[in-house]
Design goal:
By secondary structure, the protein is α/β, with parallel strands linked by helices. Helices cover about 40% and strands about 15% of the residues. The chain has 13 helices and twelve strands. The strands form two sheets. A six-stranded parallel sheet has the order 2-1-3-4-5-6, sandwiched between helices. It has a six-stranded parallel sheet with strand order 9-8-7-10-11-12, sandwiched between helices. Helix 3 packs parallel to helix 5, helix 6 runs parallel beside helix 7 and helix 6 packs across helix 11. The protein starts with 11 loop residues before the first strand and ends in a 5-residue tail after the last helix.
């Protein structure tokens, strides 16, 4: 389903992504999904603009730009603004944009000023922007394919709790919090934690290996293909997401749409996805708090839970958030965004 009428112009849209398919990270996943959701418009993904295609066909100019990342796409944003006086440019803000770069980086700040529209990917995103920019900011929640929940062994029947963290090993994802929590839990024979992600920081890779050697209930699985990662999430009792900076994590949405509840750091990027009143938060960097929540997930019916089943409570809260991440909602928002941008005229 698309939002075009028979009389709507098919647009030429360029998406600027600082990383492409070889990185297989959030930027690339967003870019390729948006290309599909924007059909039947003509959409291509580039790492930098103007690219070879733009030079080759100056008679078929791009009409709308969606630039992912204010700082890393800043050169493309600036080049577009020089050639497109009507604007027709949306800048999509990542976690490092919102919670770091726009505070001090001139290139990121210039991207904010040049954008016709700013897009954030979770409900708390606008709060991080200067008040004068919020009027041109909109929230577009991302989407993914929903997977049917699978039956998971009941921890009440003494089955082990299986948790999974999905995130490349880099400081923004705070794997150090997970490592410290695992060491606090290393004597827990009924609690196992898998960790999926490439060691983008070699020192964190060494720390993961050391944790795995010291703690038999922790496995670092390295990078995994997307479908295999989704199956890991689907089979886990709970997803652990300890990031210290997030713009709207794919993996939180993927867990919710796989029937797997989340334990997450209480940072704006996670609260904007899971809601203010979600019960599964721990403070950023609080390994003891994370360990306590994992124990609570394992000790169902122990009297320290809220209600009869802590996991069931978290699962119910996540299920209430699931409609936010539907493909139809994201498609409608994107189609309206590019239509509005295309209708801008020279000031």
């Amino acid at each position: 389903m698309n939002q075009l009428t028979p009389h709507t112009e098919v647009l030429r849209i360029v998406i600027v992504s600082p990383t492409l398919a070889d990185a297989n990270n959030g930027n690339w996943q967003t870019a390729q999904r948006w290309r599909a959701l924007l059909a039947p418009h003509h959409v291509r993904i580039v790492k930098q603009w103007p690219d070879a295609e733009a030079h080759k066909h100056p008679d078929l100019p791009d009409q709308v730009m969606l630039a992912l990342h204010a700082r890393r796409s800043a050169a493309s944003v600036s080049a577009w603004a020089e050639r497109q006086p009507a604007g027709r440019l949306a800048v999509v803000l990542t976690g490092t944009d919102l919670y770091r770069d726009i505070q001090f980086d001139p290139a990121a700040q210039q991207s904010l000023a040049l954008a016709s529209q700013l897009v954030v990917l979770q409900a708390r995103g606008p709060d991080a922007l200067p008040a004068d920019l919020r009027a041109k900011t909109q929230v577009i929640f991302q989407s993914c394919t929903a997977l049917p929940p699978v039956a998971k062994p009941s921890t009440q029947a003494q089955a082990p709790l299986r948790a999974v963290m999905v995130g490349h090993l880099r400081d923004e994802k705070s794997p150090q919090t997970l490592f410290a929590a695992v060491r606090l839990l290393q004597g827990e024979s009924q609690l196992f934690i898998d960790h999926i992600g490439e060691a983008l920081d070699p020192a964190l890779g060494e720390a993961a290996l050391a944790t795995s050697a010291a703690c038999p209930n922790y496995r670092w699985l390295g990078g995994q293909p997307y479908n295999a990662t989704r199956r890991h999430i689907q089979r886990a009792h709970v997803l652990v997401h300890p990031s210290r900076i997030e713009g709207g994590a794919h993996v939180v949405m993927e867990a919710i749409l796989s029937g797997t509840p989340v334990l997450a750091s209480r940072i704006p990027g996670n609260v904007g996805m899971l809601g203010d009143d979600y019960a599964g938060y721990f403070e950023p960097g609080d390994a003891e708090g994370l360990a306590q929540l994992l124990r609570r997930c394992r000790n169902v019916g122990s009297g320290i839970t809220i209600g009869d089943d802590w996991l069931a409570l978290l699962d119910a809260q996540c299920a209430l958030r699931a409609p936010l991440f539907s493909a139809d909602a994201e498609r409608m928002a994107l189609q309206q965004l590019v239509l509005d941008l295309s209708r801008m005229s020279k000031p």
